[in-house]
């Protein structure tokens, strides 16, 4: 009954005990008799589910003081056992403990009074912030203060078709929701988690990325401190560099995918992708100048660039914050993508002395639409995001680095094609191999995207044909740098998207539900759309008859088709596939368990059906159509 402990209030406390999944907190309640305790679930330590376990293990020990805890649910008494009569005695009740949270976004919403606590505070068309309390076949249940709960039906949790909500969300995840319908009679309301109705990108993107980087840094520092105590040595995980710094490095190794260097002063290891390497590669052992693009303190990865224009600008005085702020949030800046990570991209701003800036690629509900295939070297336009959140901690290595959002429609090859949809010719095109036609996405599957042909003149026999884009025909292999091994190449597409595609093959279906109809195989690779001459054998044209034309000593890009107990079935093209044996990945059972977590043919720990993977062919039998593969690095 203490008002200071009501849902939505901020309190402080001390950690008493830690279990596998939560923390027991003793709250500081000077005006309350006795000791008040609360539960802080592990999922409520952060807005980033992937960091929760490490944060709890590294940063939250018994005795630690917590200054800003948000009360989500007050302690409740509930009946237990069989009760006779209408009255309950103290012995007949058990206590549901008070629940508190440390999620930065929920705390911010509570401080501004925007976190709903009752149905009377919920209105249609409003965007509200909550957290996932339950996942089921019906959809996602989103909880707010004081147990207030909404349902996001399965059809309203994503702009793409969803078969299992558990593949998109996790229990405890912070989400933002758009209120669709409020039923006061039934005391229920329905929300949507679709990015298309949440007015993305939002100012919240900046808080999401800032808190992610700060929490990564805190984990790295805790690990470094632990290693220092254990080994009595200097902390290897301690970051001594900042984004945008120019330094001298020694080339250690030249790899197919880039250069590995050692930074002077502290011996940190840096990596430079081929896209940021000089045309004439330096020799091993030579000293070169580079500029730091990004730092992943938890993994000890420092990304650098050798581009001279970026380096020379970095030697000069940095653009002051006041000069940068002269551009308001509606003023566009020309930008170039320098590096792409899972959570963010780093861009350079040529108009502002090559200042480096961050671009969020994810928000609370998942990936930000349209940025899944961002490529290194892409020219685009961006606007600043200046709404810094009060109390947001900034990680040391990113201090002074502005955050921006990309607003141009040419974020990747296929996006550029789609952006020109209004200027497409209305002339009808003959359906033939090699034709460039206009298509619209009808449905997206794991390894195929079904499309409808829009401006096509076809023979009568082609009526009712099925048009498909295989995952191997979406992005050029040279542009896969920004795609992670757990990300589908279809991430940038959604149902209803319109773009151009090239007809690769037309063949009659001889079995299955579509027997007798024709299947049209298509490609949306930029190299195909922009008029590739077709003389070079690449994976999109690969067949068993032409597999002998491949240089088997060079790696190729494949796409995960299925996960089995033996390994991964990998598509090299729409007609050629091979097997990557699990023993060819690792002989360490612990590593294999992590990589092949919950094998069910579709979803695993690291590998996702439809995601790209670089492999090398070690054995080929074209007659029996058998390929044995090994992973590259």
Automatic annotation (TrEMBL):
GO terms for molecular function: RNA binding. It comes from the Eukaryota. GO terms for cellular component: small-subunit processome. SMART domains: S1. InterPro entries: NA-bd_OB-fold, OB_Rrp5, Rrp5, Rrp5_S1, S1_domain. It holds the Pfam family S1_RRP5. Residues 8-86, 125-194, 244-307, 553-632 form the S1 motif domain. One of its GO terms (biological process) is rRNA processing. This is S1 motif domain-containing protein. It comes from Aplanochytrium stocchinoi.
């Amino acid at each position: 009954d203490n008002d200071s402990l009501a849902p939505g209030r901020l309190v402080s406390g001390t950690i008493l005990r830690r279990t596998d999944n939560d923390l027991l907190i003793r709250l500081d309640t000077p005006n309350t008799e006795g000791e008040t305790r609360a539960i802080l679930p592990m999922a409520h330590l952060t807005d980033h589910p992937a960091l929760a376990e490490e944060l709890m293990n590294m940063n939250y020990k018994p005795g630690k003081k917590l200054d800003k805890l948000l009360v989500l649910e007050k302690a409740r008494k509930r009946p237990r056992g069989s009760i006779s009569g209408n009255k309950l005695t103290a012995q007949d009740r058990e206590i549901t403990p008070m629940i508190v949270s440390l999620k930065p976004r929920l705390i911010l919403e509570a401080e501004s009074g925007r976190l709903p606590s009752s149905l009377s505070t919920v209105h249609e068309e409003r965007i509200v912030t909550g957290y996932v309390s339950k996942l089921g076949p019906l959809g996602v249940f989103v909880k707010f203060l004081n147990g207030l709960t909404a349902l996001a039906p399965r059809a309203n949790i994503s702009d793409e078709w969803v078969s299992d909500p558990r593949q998109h969300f996790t229990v405890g995840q912070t989400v933002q929701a758009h209120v669709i319908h409020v039923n006061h009679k039934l005391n229920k309301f329905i929300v949507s988690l679709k990015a298309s109705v949440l007015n993305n990108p939002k100012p919240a993107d900046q808080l999401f990325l800032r808190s992610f980087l700060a929490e990564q840094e805190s984990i790295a520092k805790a690990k470094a401190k632990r290693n220092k105590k254990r080994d009595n040595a200097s902390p290897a995980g301690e970051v001594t560099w900042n984004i945008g710094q120019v330094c001298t490095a020694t080339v250690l190794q030249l790899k197919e995918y880039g250069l590995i260097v050692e930074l002077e002063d502290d011996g940190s290891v840096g990596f430079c992708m081929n896209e940021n390497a000089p045309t004439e590669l330096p020799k091993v052992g030579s000293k070169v100048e580079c500029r730091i693009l990004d730092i992943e303190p938890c993994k000890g990865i420092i990304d650098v660039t050798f581009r001279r224009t970026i380096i020379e600008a970095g030697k000069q005085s940095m653009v002051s914050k006041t000069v940068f702020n002269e551009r308001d949030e509606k003023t566009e800046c020309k930008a170039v993508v320098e590096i792409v990570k899972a959570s963010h991209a780093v861009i350079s701003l040529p108009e502002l002395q090559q200042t480096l800036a961050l671009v969020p690629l994810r928000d609370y509900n998942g990936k930000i639409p349209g940025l899944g295939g961002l490529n290194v070297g892409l020219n685009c336009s961006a606007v600043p995001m200046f709404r810094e959140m009060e109390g947001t901690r900034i990680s040391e290595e990113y201090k002074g680095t502005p955050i921006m959002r990309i607003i141009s429609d040419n974020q990747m090859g296929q996006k550029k094609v789609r952006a020109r949809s209004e200027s497409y010719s209305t002339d009808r095109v003959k359906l033939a191999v090699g034709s460039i036609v206009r298509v619209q996405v009808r449905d997206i599957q794991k390894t195929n995207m079904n499309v409808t042909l829009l401006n096509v003149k076809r023979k009568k026999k082609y009526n009712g044909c099925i048009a498909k884009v295989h995952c191997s025909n979406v992005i050029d292999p040279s542009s896969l740098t920004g795609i992670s091994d757990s990300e589908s190449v279809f991430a940038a597409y959604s149902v209803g998207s319109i773009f151009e595609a090239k007809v690769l093959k037309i063949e009659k279906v001889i079995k299955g539900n579509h027997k007798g109809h024709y299947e049209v195989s298509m490609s949306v690779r930029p190299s195909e759309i922009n008029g590739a001459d077709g003389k070079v054998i690449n994976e999109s044209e690969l067949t068993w008859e032409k597999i002998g034309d491949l240089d088997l000593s060079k790696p190729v890009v494949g796409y995960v088709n299925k996960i089995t107990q033996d390994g991964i079935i990998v598509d090299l093209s729409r007609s050629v596939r091979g097997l990557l044996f699990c023993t060819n990945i690792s002989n360490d059972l612990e590593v294999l368990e992590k990589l092949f977590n919950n094998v069910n043919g579709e979803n695993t720990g690291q590998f996702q059906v439809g995601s790209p993977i670089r492999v090398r062919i070690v054995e080929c039998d074209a007659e029996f159509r058998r390929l044995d593969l090994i992973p590259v690095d």
